[in-house]
Amino acid sequence: MTASKLLVVIGITGTQGSSVANALLQSPEWHIRGISRNPSSAAAKLWTSKGVQMVKADLDDVTSLEAAFSGATAIFAVTDFYNLVFSPVHAAAAHEAGMAPNEYARNIETKQGINIATAANSPVVSATLTHFVFSSLSDTKRWSGGKYTWNFHFDGKADVVKHIKQKVPDLAAKMSTVQVGMYASNWKGGMGRPQKQEDGSFVVQIPDVGETKLPWIFVQRDTGVYVKALLENETGKDILAFSEMATWREFWELWSSIRGVKLRVQVVSVESFFQFFPEILRREFQESLRYITEFGYTGGDPDVCGDLQELSPNAKATSLREYIGSEDWSSLE
């Protein structure tokens, strides 16, 4: 059976994009095209070996995106704030402009998102496009009433959504958004990484944010589950993608139970929790966490759905128990 629909995946060699591609890869009705700046890379060739068509395109080049999107039935779009904020080229440009690297990265990320929208709305692409799924996050400044202004990795994406709704109505009519929750794998980057003690027990620090339940996601699996559900529905849906809601304490106590190890939870201030992070990210993460704790991950946006079964009754996200059981924890030993 020949696939009748074409899904173009931005970021297919990254975490979210690869999850989306894997979720649709075995579907007989979908053919997948991946976008890469270097289709000859080892990561890109791996997708080619799976039957994915890999094409070259750059988020800074609208013309290349138009060509990559040609014939698409659906597009999954994601932008990467962290790649931009740690880029030496952009850091130098930010310094020259007298801007914080975070703010500069947000501006570039927003511009790239607008480039994606411009290309997706071009006549040759819009002729076949029915679904445009954008990976966004909530509008911090709006939902906090201006209280939090340094959550740039949220606001750059939210600015793209605002641009599309205000300036690109034809594409807005085809758009759905997915707000991907807190990566359950963030511990690998040091965000609450358990430390093994001499007696074989562990100590883990959690931030002093009360018993707030957070939307943890096994991003490598469940991003695709949610995007697939959006593609099976009419457009105009906004959903929070998560595997399971849990407090920070619940997450690690479940880990301790499953792993069969003794664990002591140490509650520290938000400032202390992020003290070992690169300086460029400390304020960013502190404000982000305080915003999430006070206003919620979606900021309390009433238009964002938090129920996967409402979109797709048969869809199932991964439980934290399943995530913890499948994860490689050998680096903690």
UniProtKB/TrEMBL annotation:
Database matches in Pfam families: NmrA
GO CC, any one term: nucleus
Domain NmrA-like span(s) in chain numbering: 4-324
Alphabetically ordered keywords of this record: NADP
Keyword NADP: yes
Gene3D superfamilies given in the database record: NAD(P)-binding Rossmann-like Domain, UDP-galactose 4-epimerase, domain 1
Domain of life assignment: Eukaryota
Family listed: Belongs to the NmrA-type oxidoreductase family.
PANTHER family in the cross-refs: NITROGEN METABOLITE REPRESSION PROTEIN NMRA FAMILY MEMBER, NMRA-LIKE DOMAIN-CONTAINING PROTEIN
Protein name as catalogued: NmrA-like domain-containing protein
Organism: Emericellopsis atlantica
